[in-house]
Amino acid sequence: MQLVIVESPAKAKTIEKYLGGDFHVLASYGHIRDLPAKDGSVDPDHGFAMQWENYGDKGKQLKAIADEAKKADRLILATDPDREGEAISWHVQEVLRAKKALPQKVDRVTFNAITKQAVTEAMAHPRALDEDLIDAYRARRALDYLVGFTLSPVLWRKLPGAKSAGRVQSVALRLVVEREREIESFVPQEYWSVAAEMEQGGQGFVARLVRWKGEKIDRLTIGKEGDAMAAKADVEAGRFTVEKVETKPVSRNPPPPFTTSTLQQEAARKLGFSASHTMRIAQQLYEDGAITYMRTDGVQMDGSAISAARKAIAERYDGGYLPEKPRQYQTKAKNAQEAHEAIRPTDFGRDKVGSGDHARLYDLIFKRALASQMASARLERTTVDLVDGTGQHALRATGQVVIFPGFLALYEEGRDDSEDDDSKLLPRLSEGDAPAKKKVTAEQHFTQPPPRYSEASLVKKLEELGIGRPSTYASTLQVLKDRDYVRIEKNRFFAEESGRLVTAFLERFFERYVSYDFTAGLEEELDDISGGRAQWQAVLEAFWRDFKPKTAEVMEQKPSDITAELDKFLEPMLFPPKADGSNPRACPLCGDGQLSLRGGRFGAFIACSNYPECKYTRKFGQPGGSEGGADTGPEVLGQHPETGQDIVKKSGRFGPYIEMGEGKEAKRGSIPKDLPDGELTLDWAVKLLSLPREIGLHPETGLPIVANIGRFGPYLLHDGKYGRLSSTAEIFEVGMNSAVAKLADAANKGGRGSSSREPLKVLGKHPRTEAEIKLMAGRYGPYVTDGTTNATLPKTIEQEALTLEEAAQLIDVRAAAAPAKKGKKAPAKKAAPKKAAAKKPAAKKAAG
Questions:
Q1: Of 1.10.460.10, 1.10.530.10, 2.40.240.50, 3.20.20.70, which CATH number belongs to 155-186+452-557?
Q2: E-strand spans in 469-545?
């Protein structure tokens, strides 16, 4: 018997169909062991020896693999064809060796696609484990461990609120933070554009002013309204004739098939997928045999695949769409050993696979790969110059027309940020023509700061800088989100306060280790290890020799000294010069105190030197002295009419709140979001402190109905069931009849009460049952519901990327797995132990 080990059960199921009865395929379910999260897992003093530990949840699977390995004549390690796949195979081999279960013959096979031809071909050409790739894996894993477990404790002790740092993670965060700084320091510049709406032969077009008073006009030339109006008047007064018509043929070649990086970028642009969601769906497509391996730096396609693509093009389009010779693309990856074939369909005769996000991503991969072998697009770009009678003023119109679409008939690459695209069609114009001038406009504009990074543009930037590797980008960006160092709004990365502070700390005290050149250089050294050009322990030794003393030096400093250094380092951002020349550090509350950066239990903030007399504070993340979120200390709103105690408004970690009393006896209440701070009066404070409000006893059950504010907003509660209220004001206004009606409505619509809260998203109607599906925030995380069945959203699916089809599938699976009614299931449960015991030997006998 020959035992084959792969990563996933889906992959095992697929390839077992292609092998004979002598093969038994088992899945390791990914990595089976790792460095334990404790000191000493990597020992720099003894050749960077590593102490590996089996994952606790893999015990059952490892036992099954070991039991089968003892009976096997040959072990075939068929994990993914990259560094991580090589590492999993190595770990399996080492664990079996330790268990004395390793067969005498061990082979390694790799295939770039899970098809019968690829698998059988790989089985016929086995090899040994690639020691260079294993060394590269060990080097990266040790390096990430040493950085994380050496640097993170420094952060925890010296920078309250910081969570972790990482070799690539921190550099990616620096990119986001630096872009935030660029945006904040950006000073918009006013400029004006002048354009004429013209018409020739009944077809309209727009010509913009490019020369005025004999001077060339650039984008920022006209900077004042007065000049713009004068230019507009000159254009209105002039009679413009065509001076020159220039037509140029333009050719556009198709982009190459996808690599890991370009797939992540394009899926983000066109499908709105996060990098992690893209890789999860691509992994499943690969394991189902639909596409080739999705972790690759290569852009080349196998010769047989190119032939299949050309055949598919010939069948779909006429001969003009198929170039005479096949297109060959060259990879730019420096590490050829890890560069595989591009991501492509395994069968170009299959233009659709699956449904939902799987179908959408496959369609993108299919079209990109097919288009890469299609003919170039031919376009014609026309430029028309129009001059007035004086020769002092000139207009220009540009247009573009597609003569032959070529690959554009199937696919056009997306762009991260929109650019001016003069692709409008112009009327036929000749020298001497005088088009009719219909209207002249002068529009005001302002220069815009650079856009915040999207997932696509950030992945592209990381790749350009040579930081990290495409296969790790998804997990790197996910860590930044999980640590709350960044947030995503409208598919753009915004740096959170904690992320900005961590970046400032690392730039000030560990500048070398978050520099782009150093990180990229280290990546090259790691690639040299996988290529057999460097020794892994020597690379680690060179890094550790400088890194360890630096961390020890920073650890010895007092937190107050760290804060003082950060105060100086961040001064240009936190306390920039004021327009009136006054002291930017002067306290706006007391007047004579000086503002500076302080460290607190929940992170950094700006405070006055006259504390505790002056309680002025400002959030760390408010650059330039913005006072919008300044906290001037506790504010007494007045005395409670019944108790006579002060009601005080305060600011806490989770926002503003009100408090009455002190210590354990104090009563507190959050200030609702639909009640702005400016509207918080003493009357409102008294009302909020009186909650919960009992409306009365339910006329049917006799149990109380209560109105209150919860995590998800205002609500009604009766007998453990909830109903939603529309506003904070309604808590104090809703009467018994209305409350009973709202609770009944919630019970009818929401099943288990899901409609008692506002859905995060309404996804649409279930494609099979027509029930409306909603995404909800639950106590244990987000879930989807159709009003009858609730299904928890797996961690592998991001809320932003969830589709209607995926939600419907989750609900269908959950409904199918739901237990039978208690009355029917109980007898089976009681009888199960004896029946199982009686049947077990018989089952074994039958199997034999």
A1: 1.10.460.10
A2: 486-489, 492-495
Q: What would the pLDDT profile of 301-329 be if each residue is shown by its tens digit?
A: 988 899 999 999 999 998 889 999 999 98
Which H or E run includes 66? helix 59-71
Enumerate the active-site residues.
293
The CA distance from 453 to 486, in Å, is 11
Q: What is the pLDDT of residues 242-257, one digit of tens each?
A: 999 999 999 999 999 9
Please state which of the ranges 258-272, 322-336, 338-352, 524-538 shows the lowest mean pLDDT. Answer: 322-336
Report pLDDT for 655. Answer: 65
Please give the structure tokens belonging to residue 558: 């007092």
Q: What is the CATH number of domain 190-253+378-446?
A: 2.70.20.10
The rounded distance, in Å, linking the Cα atoms of 618 and 632 is 8
**What are the domain boundaries of the chain?**
2-129, 155-186+452-557, 190-253+378-446, 260-375, 560-627, 635-690, 693-751, 761-815
- Is residue 778 exposed (0-12), middle (13-18) or buried (19+ Cβ within 10 Å)? middle
Residue 87, token pair as written in the block = 């590492």
Residue type, 144: D
Smallest CA-to-CA distance from 789 within 771, 814, 806 is with 814
CA atoms within 13 A on the CB side of 76: 24
Task: Give the pLDDT of residue 422.
Answer: 54
Q: Which fold has domain 2-129?
A: Rossmann fold (3.40.50)
Backbone torsions φ then ψ of 785, nearest 5 degrees: -145, 145
Peptide bond into 559 cis (omega under 30): no
Distance between CA 305 and CA 299 in Å, rounded?
13
Q: Are strands 53-54 and 74-77 parallel, antiparallel or unpaired?
A: unpaired
Q: Considering the chain, what percentage of its residues have pLDDT values greater than 70? A: 88
Q: Does domain 260-375 have CATH number 3.30.230.10?
A: no
Q: Which CATH architecture has domain 560-627?
A: 2-Layer Sandwich (3.30)
**What is the rounded distance in angstroms from the CA atom of residue 395 to the CA atom of residue 384?**
8
Largest CA distance in the chain: 106
| Buried-state track 482-492, b at ≥16 Cβ within 10 A, e below 16 | ebebbebeeeb
Residue 519: both structure tokens together: 């990180």
